[in-house]
Design goal:
Residues 2-62 form the RNA-binding S4 domain. By secondary structure, the chain is α+β, with helices and mostly antiparallel strands. It has helices at residues 4-10, 16-24, 116-123, 143-151, 190-197, 228-236; strands at 2-3, 28-30, 33-34, 41-42, 49-51, 54-55, 63-68, 97-98, 107-113, 131-138, 154-155, 158-159, 164-171, 176-183, 202-210, 213-214, 223-225. The protein has six helices and 17 strands. It is elongated, with a radius of gyration of 20 Å.
């Protein structure tokens, strides 16, 4: 017997927190009875559990890596008809969802899974999972600017946590630089806003790693399943 919110998270329905909201809203039933109490337990191998009238099954957990192209949104749908990451997941039968986000103008490593519990842990700032990017900006930030990155930068929604920032490449002819940045949180468009605060416009932003998972030579717009070793690495990289 497991708590209902844990069952929903493990089935890839939503994170535990979102699953609790579904339960409190009366969207979940167990054997035909609406359940609104968060402590309720059930056995997914025996009990019939539905969310919004739809039965859930103990779906096999799957984990994928996608090299998201620029100009694609990390959303299940888009009313404007733009490309979404699921457009690139042809052949995947399970319902998979992006772990965190890469904004429309960003590219690179994106994890997709139906393991809602793992996804929630990977994206929660409390677990300090590092995400590394190569960021090309206009101009060449001086050392003091990068030191501000390392200390934290005041944004309109609060101070950023200490990050890592080092020169990766400097092109004096084009008057631009590529900075290798590692952050441990995920505020909306955080890196772009941090560089904006330093008066350096972002030209290109590419995520190259998530925890110990590296994008390697995966081509743009292509996905592949994670290996068992890579999945284990993601779990081990979550600090309690």
């Amino acid at each position: 017997m497991e708590r209902l919110q844990k069952i929903l998270a493990q089935a890839g329905i939503a994170s535990r927190r979102k699953s609790e909201e579904l339960i409190l809203a009366g969207k979940v039933t167990v054997n035909g009875e609406v359940v609104t109490e968060l402590g309720t337990k059930a056995d997914p191998t025996v009990d019939e559990i539905t969310v919004n009238g739809r039965s859930i099954a103990a779906e096999k957990k799957v984990y994928y890596m996608l090299n998201k192209p620029k100009g694609v949104i990390t959303s299940a749908s888009d009313p404007e008809g733009r490309k979404i990451v699921q457009d690139y997941m042809k052949g995947v039968k399970e319902r998979v969802y992006p772990v965190g986000r890469l904004d429309y103008d960003s590219e690179g490593l994106l994890i997709l899974t139906n393991d809602g519990e793992l996804a929630n842990k990977l994206t929660h700032p409390r677990h300090h999972v590092p995400k590394t990017y190569l960021v090309t900006v206009e101009g060449v930030p001086h050392g003091e600017a990068l030191e501000k990155f390392r200390r934290g930068i005041q944004l309109e929604d609060g101070m950023t946590k200490p990050a890592e920032a080092d020169y990766y490449d400097v092109d004096t002819d084009k008057k631009q630089a590529t900075i290798r940045v590692t952050i441990y949180e995920g505020k909306n468009r955080q890196i772009r806003r941090m560089f904006d605060a330093l008066s350096h416009k972002v030209i290109r932003l590419k995520r190259i790693s998530f925890g110990e998972l590296l994008i390697g030579n995966l081509k743009r717009g292509i996905y592949r399943p994670l290996t068992k070793e890579e999945i284990d690495q993601l779990h081990k990289g979550i600090k309690q």
